[in-house]
Design brief:
Layout: E1 11-12, E2 22-23, H1 25-44, H2 51-63, H3 66-74, H4 77-90, H5 94-113, H6 119-130, H7 134-146, H8 151-173, H9 175-191, H10 194-204, H11 208-231, H12 239-252, H13 257-266, H14 278-289, H15 293-305, H16 312-330, H17 338-345, H18 347-364, H19 370-393, H20 402-412, H21 415-435, H22 439-463, E3 465-468, E4 483-488, E5 494-500, E6 509-511, E7 514-516, E8 529-532, E9 538-544, E10 565-571, E11 577-583, H23 586-599, H24 610-637, H25 653-658
Helix pairs in contact: 1-2, 1-3, 2-5, 4-6, 5-8, 6-8, 6-9, 7-10, 8-9, 8-11, 9-14, 12-14, 14-16, 15-18, 16-18, 16-19, 18-19, 18-20, 19-20, 19-21, 22-23, 22-24
């Protein structure tokens, strides 16, 4: 058999490999005819040196004219049948596997970059690869076996990514021609561990260039394919996927016919396979095939014992759509976050965890119907937001693999904790939406709440209280310290104080600016101290502790050591104390110290206690939540969207103010 010497041919500089020039068309045809004869002889005589054919083929695809290659080999389905048979037989050899990859990559390069490639040629290659998807298992084994990003591994990833790109190109010409191949290669890459192997390579490498390369040559075309699979439903061309799902359901319930009938009954909406998109049906098959028995066990228990079992297929469909939307939003930019890529490549594990969690939420929430399922699916969006925020916050700090962290977060979120997270996120988004339109409204609410708290304190101050007039913690000076009866005057302008030897049984009364009592024995002095609040320029306070040291005993509780006293001084001009008194508990400190500060007109920014600040903030939050909910419902029911409107704000401060009418705290 003749062999042409490439060195004696007229050469053209046109090649995928810059180190190789290509033969002219006539020489290329002669060389290709030789290789076709070799393939025919090897097919007729299996003992022939077939392995060498792959090496020769790689040389042919490197050196021959691309147009001739397209016409003579790439468009020849018989050639591809023989080629993939050789690959399956000899791929154990790295050199022969490399030769095979050269052929595949050169073919895909021509199909993707050359202009005017006939659709039939593109379809022939796509169908031939599709008919030999066992090659994906070979590639997955090679990736997992090496465990590192070697040159041959990157060639494998590039070849499969380019094949997916060819399917995307074919889908634009004929959707029905590419649909089944897309569904089956995606299913095959998941079941063989091919995607997981790529994820492992990314996880083990800190090389950003490697990651960017994988995203460019593989993840990007994969994402485009999934967009197609989401937009297209199961049809006559892809009915094989429906048969695959039915077979998987049969296998899942082959020991329990009653459970199977119940399963089909609650998933009746999906008895028609065209109800699924391609992506949904592949995900459903993957979930039912998963080797983890926890979900199947839980489903069997619900089908046998629960009145309202979880509709698994509807749940899978909802989770598919939710995850697709989540991944799409986070990968819109050119720079796809590494953790999103990892979650996309490990979708099986992520989806299984989410669906399993959804079954638990179904039971916890006592869900019954499709409306309840819609609510639970909306809840899952907040679960994924939690994953995003946690993984991002720990980036570069926690060395735990990304997918492991993701699964830990999903598995740890109970229904109750997720509902709390949902409420928090909804409130935050609500505030963000309306805050720009309601600054005056917020100020008005703050003023109203502060006024309400002030009125509360006025009522408490007018009730009056007993305080110490002398330091109760000083043993040497005051064995029995005198006391003041403090009360706010009727007109709220003055603080009234009268000194007593002790606390009398019947509380004193107030007449105008006088504190009166019939117990004359307890009175010290003849007059009531009147302190106009407008003269108070500052309030000073400090905590005091008893100096008494009681003997320690394991059976005794030292109550006095736990007592807390607060010294309060009302300061006038030149920092001169107008009155000093001592409170014997924290509640009294909150009421009197904070209350007097709120009333004193000269105190522009009162130094309120944490307790009073918390009360004010809580009341503002309650009122804002209630009134913004009302505002939101009213606005959305009318069809307005203030965030997108270029016109004058629909709600002015007068409109916002009307929301607070007829609103009472008590």
């Amino acid at each position: 058999m003749s062999r042409l010497d490439p060195g004696k041919q007229n050469l053209e500089v046109k090649s995928l490999d810059p180190n190789h020039s290509r033969l002219n068309p006539e020489a290329s045809r002669l060389r290709i005819n030789d290789i076709i004869k070799d393939l025919s002889i090897n097919h007729a005589h299996p003992v022939s040196p077939q392995a060498n054919t792959l090496t020769v083929l790689s040389s042919v695809f490197k050196n021959c004219d691309e147009q001739v290659l397209l016409q003579s080999l790439v468009s020849n389905s018989y050639f591809w049948c023989r080629f993939f048979a050789l690959v399956a037989k000899y791929a154990y050899s790295n050199s022969l596997l490399h030769a095979s990859l050269v052929v595949l990559r050169a073919t895909e390069h021509m199909l993707l970059t050359m202009k005017g490639v006939p659709s039939d040629t593109l379809k022939t290659y796509c169908d031939s690869f599709h008919g030999n998807l066992n090659i994906i298992s070979i590639f997955a084994g090679e990736l997992m076996g090496s465990g590192e990003a070697s040159k041959i591994n990157m060639e494998i990833i590039r070849v499969v990514g380019n094949y997916i790109a060819c399917l995307n190109k074919l889908a634009k010409k004929s959707a029905s021609s590419a649909a089944l191949a897309m569904g089956e290669i995606y299913l095959t890459m998941r079941t063989t561990g091919f995607l997981t192997a790529i994820s492992y390579l990314i996880e083990e490498s800190s090389d950003d260039k490697l990651y960017d390369s994988i995203v460019k040559v593989f993840v990007t075309p994969l994402r485009s394919m999934k967009i197609f699979m989401t937009a297209n439903h199961v049809s006559e061309a892809t009915m094989k996927l429906s048969k695959e799902l039915n077979s998987t359901v049969e296998s899942a319930f082959y020991l329990n016919k009653a459970a199977k009938e119940q399963f089909l009954a609650i998933n009746e909406d999906y008895s028609d396979p065209t109800a699924f998109t391609l992506l949904q049906i592949v995900d459903a098959i993957t979930i039912l095939r998963d080797d983890n028995l926890s979900l199947k066990k839980r489903m069997a228990e619900q089908l046998m014992f629960d009145k309202h079992p979880f509709p698994l297929l509807a749940g899978c469909v909802g989770v598919t759509d939710m995850l697709f939307s989540h991944f799409s939003v986070n990968s819109e930019n050119k720079d796809v976050p590494r953790y999103i890529t990892q979650m996309m490549l490990n979708k099986d594990a992520v989806m299984f965890a989410v669906v399993h969690k959804l079954t638990l939420y179904w039971s916890s929430s006592k869900a019954k119907n499709s409306e309840d399922l819609v609510c639970l699916l909306a809840l899952l969006k907040h679960l994924m937001d939690k994953v995003d925020s946690t993984v991002n916050s720990n980036a570069g700090v926690d060395e735990t693999p990304i997918i492991e962290k993701t699964l830990d977060i999903i598995n740890s979120m109970s229904y109750e904790s997720l509902r709390q997270l949902q409420l928090k996120q909804v409130k935050a988004k609500h505030y963000q939406k309306w805050n720009q339109y309601g600054s005056n409204f917020n100020a008005m609410l703050s003023h109203q709440v502060e006024d309400y708290v002030r009125q509360q304190r006025i009522y408490q101050l007018q009730t009056g209280t007993w305080v110490y007039a002398e330091d109760p913690t000083s043993d040497r000076r005051y064995k029995h310290p005198k006391v003041f009866f403090l009360v706010l005057s009727d007109n709220h302008n003055n603080l009234l104080a009268r000194e007593f030897k002790y606390r009398i049984e019947k509380p004193p009364t107030v007449d105008q600016n006088e504190i009166l009592t019939n117990d004359v024995d307890g009175i010290v002095g003849n007059t009531t101290i009147v302190i106009p609040l407008k003269r108070v320029t500052d309030f000073q306070s400090r905590e005091l502790k008893l100096n008494k040291e009681l003997p320690k005993h394991r059976r005794l509780i030292n109550i006095t050591s736990k007592a807390v006293f607060t010294e309060v001084q009302l300061m006038g001009k030149n920092t001169k104390p107008l009155i000093t008194f001592y409170l014997d508990n924290r509640d009294a400190s909150f009421i009197w110290l904070d209350g007097l500060q709120l009333l004193a007109s000269s105190q522009k920014k009162p130094k309120l206690s944490k307790s009073t600040k918390s009360q004010i903030d809580t009341l503002i939050d309650i009122r804002k939540n209630i009134q913004l909910i009302g505002l939101s419902d009213y606005n959305f029911s009318l069809g307005y969207n203030l965030a997108d409107s270029e016109e004058e704000q629909y709600y002015d401060i007068d409109t916002l103010s009307t929301l607070t009418e007829d609103f009472f705290y008590d």
